[in-house]
Amino acid sequence: MNPPNLRKLIVLGIIISILFFGVGTVIGGTTIFLYDQSQLTGIKDQLNSLELKANTPIKAQNVSMTSVSIDTAVTSAVEQVSPAVVTVVATVPGGMGFFGIAPDQTVSGSGVIISQDGYIITNNHVVEGAKDIHVVLENGTQVPAKLISADPYGDLAVLKIGGTMPGVATLGNSDMLKPGETVAAIGSPLGDFKNTVTVGVISATGRSLDSGNGYLMEDMIQTDAAINEGNSGGPLINLAGQVIGINTMIVRGTGYGNTVAEGLGFAIPSNTARIVSEQIISKGSFARPNLGISWQMINPDIANRYGLPAQWGAFVTGVTSGGPGEKYGIQTDDIILRIGEDAIGENLSFVNALFRHQPGERVDIEVLRNGKDIHLSVILG
After folding, report:
1. 108 and 138, same structural domain?
2. More confident residue, 261 or 123
3. What is the pTM of this model?
């Protein structure tokens, strides 16, 4: 390259450097930039400004929050009934065991206040055999309770407390329930989680369950609202805030390695609870009819094992002296086949057939005696 062209390129490079970087001198391939005092002062001011901004605290920003009240039919119903729900705590005396006398045992369940006079409905199995009972109100206050009476066959009991009631629940008409209807269970599962609410639906009505004591609990309400130990005796409510059932049991499955079931809870219909509680409150007890006999249920297995002439029935093992059975002709070794219009069978036990009648009612009882059918007219005790 000739010198003139080289000089032109050098001049052009200097001009470009000035445009982009300011005035400078190129020495030995290194560009040394030259700034006047005013430029340096401007740069210093910019740096100071950046430093001030870096050290300036960031102001907190205001966050807008909105509170929304969600009121549903479920929440309204629960708010209406919850003050009337109580935790029932009972002390069951210990007994003689294999290792000596067992200590007293504390059990707990739930209950619901049904009157301003302090009457409470709960399950019989919660307070059965208890020597001391008290209830815990929604606000945590403990109040002593008295057992008025109970109906073991219906698994219902009535307690009474004193003082001002924090709330009173209303019993609804359980005959109006339909599968799919939304319901809520309120109670104290495990005795610790007071006034717990679980929500589900009516799965079915008119269910029958084996009590394990020789009779069926009939006309039960089935629900998938979670019911756990401690919920027993608590209310099952509808969306109107009415008690339509008294929670009593759950079914987890048949055991023996079979599949475990969930969501099978059962409650006693409120109409049954009303009949039992009203009679206990007014008369001090609930009367069930009786025949004054001891008996053993017969099913096909028992009949085949002992060569009995009937596949279903109640085998009379004893007759109480002076009772209605003796008075109207029932004898030991009779097999009771029918009470009134109801035949004893796979789906109807002797007790359930008997309980379809009232004390003092005259009924026709069919018995099998020495291979012959005999009909007796008996007034129930």
Report:
1. yes
2. 123
3. 0.71
